Amino acid sequence: MAITKEAKGEVLVGVAAPTPVAVKLKRAFGPDIDGYGFILPALIIIVCLLIYPFGLALWFSLSDAVIGERGHWVGLENFIYILTMDDIFRRTLRNTLIFAITSVTLKSVFGLGLALLLQRATKFKRFIRGSVLIPFVAPTGLTTLGWWLIFDPTYSQINWVLKNVWPIKLLGLGPYHWLGDPTLALASCIFVNFWRGLPFFAVTIFAGLMAIPQELYEAADTEGATTFRKFWHITLPLLRPVLAIVILFSTIFTLADFNIVYVLTRGGPMNSTHLFATYSFTVGILNHEIGLGAAISLFLFPILLFVVIFQLKMIRKESSYGV
């Protein structure tokens, strides 16, 4: 409790002496004990929601556990099995890489183009910028269900346009079974992921564009630089750190995507569109082989680790050049 007293005509405010427990903690941990107290809640959250689940998944992957039974230690047998005997896993690995690389590349290119268009918008710019975010902020399951209806062979609006809208119908395209053909099904999943993630790229890159000093463009105009040269020598170099960050986050989210593929295809047809997330869910939860499912999901960890390290090195490289 604070104690107020007068001394030499001044009012001084004193603080009650620390408790014995506080004194012992100060002596044990030093003067930084207050800092440890501030980070303790974050540390508890990390341990409960990250470290413990990861450790549990690691244990399951090294055991023959099934749902309802703890299982026994089997070492690397699960990993050896899925690498040598599981054809679906090898196809899943290929699908995941194709899915992530294609989707992130499309989002990067079209996101940059959309950001440049947003920068040039003059009328209704607030409405346009807000509308761009709708695919990203809408619930994933709901929007993907809408795309499932669009791709449905019976009610597909795309097939109707191909067969009935002139002059498109003159090309003789379709109808297609978008989610029944393995190649078209994977392409459909990639497109929906691209459609949903495009606003994240566009808005983030747009923020980076707004941070570029306009004096650089004015100086380039006085030198007679063309639009392409201004983009290549001013816009793109200054956007590289922003692009590196947004690509890093998008790659992580895309590699771990579950909702889009599960709602559209459930990994079908004939297990041809499985990603790591959907295949580990199918094996671990639906087939009750929790140990094998954990081993499949952990194969994503070294891929993500490689992506993070590579992107962070690129960011540091750009920073070292002063970009």
**CATH 2nd-level architecture of the largest domain:** Orthogonal Bundle
Mean pLDDT: 85
CATH topology heading of the largest domain? MetI-like fold
Radius of gyration, whole Å? 28 Å
Reading the helices and strands in chain order gives EEHHHHHHHHHHHHHHH
Shape: flat
Spans of at least 5 consecutive residues with low confidence: 1-12
What is the rounded distance between the termini?
A: 54 Å
Helix content: over 70%
* Number of distinct beta strands: 2
Adjacency order of strands in the biggest sheet: 1-2
Q: Into which percentage range does the β-strand content fall?
A: under 5%
Q: What is the C-level CATH assignment of the largest domain? A: Mainly Alpha
The SS-based structural class is: mainly alpha
The CATH superfamily of the largest domain appears as MetI-like
How is the main sheet built? 2 strands, antiparallel
User: What count of domains describes the coordinates?
Assistant: 2
Total DSSP helices: 15
